[in-house]
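W.,

You were right to be curious about this one. When I first looked at the sequence I had no strong expectations either way, so I just let the prediction run and decided to look at it fresh. Below is the sequence, 296 residues in total, followed by the output.
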Amino acid sequence: MNNNRLFRILYYILDKGKVTAKELSEKFEVSERTIYRDIDNLSGAGVPIFAKQGKGGGIEIADDFILRSSLLSKDEKERIMTALKGQEATNENNEELLSKLAALFKVKKTNWIEVDFTNWQNNNSKKVFDNIKEGIINKKIITFTYYSSKEETNRKVKPVRLVFKGQSWYLYGFCLLRNDFRFFKLSRIENFELSDFNFTDDYNDIVLNKEINNEETIQLKVKFDKKAAFRVFDELGRNTIEDKDGYLYAEIEIPKDYQLYSYIFSYGDLIEVLEPKEIREKIKEITKNISKKHIT
């Protein structure tokens, strides 16, 4: 008996309400005969599961079914607790659920993660996060003003996922303005509103594009003073850094927009751009203009 598959079948049926043996067979990549054998095993374990034949039939579980902890292995219980603990910072209701499951599973809760949405300026990302989460769960269209590096636009979006990538939170959704899927950085969202309009599209099984693409990037060869090592290692990783002649050398691919010079100047005099030449010349021009404005 494959206990892991049994639990996934159980969860799948509870989520869908009614399914066919063929659907389960395709979903879990086993024969229909194996599915019926699994259904018998679930029934033998005390799950009120039954199959109806004919038109409109299918495999169902009684509405009053209560999940028993004995159906889960110790590893499965711990993985469920771990997953919920990872979400606790983004859902204030999880603490009560964790306590109930810990009692049911007879496992000890472990505090291993804490997420703080605020930066040092205490922005409103947590509030935006919670509102987007509600939009995703209840399938509500959201509207907001978005500030990209090139323009300010008003967006209307069907929210799909909240994604944490590269030290920042992003919304992934279907943008009705661009008629395509887009990533939106939460810190750049303003005037957020949760509309009263629902959408019916099912995005549960959508595969996200893991790359947050920029229209144009540039490759920099840079040299860092070792005084900046703590930050260089944080941002670029040790495997990408060459330690030579008392300096740290790296190649960086970065969007060719406002972030380029903001990033360079954020290191002050602890960084030198070696290539390309046109970026070195632009830095000279910018620093010259800055110097003029600060001469008293």
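Here's what jumped out at me. The chain has four domains: 3-69, 73-105, 125-198, 217-293. And, maybe more interesting for your project: The longest strand covers residues 152-165.

Coffee later to discuss?

I.
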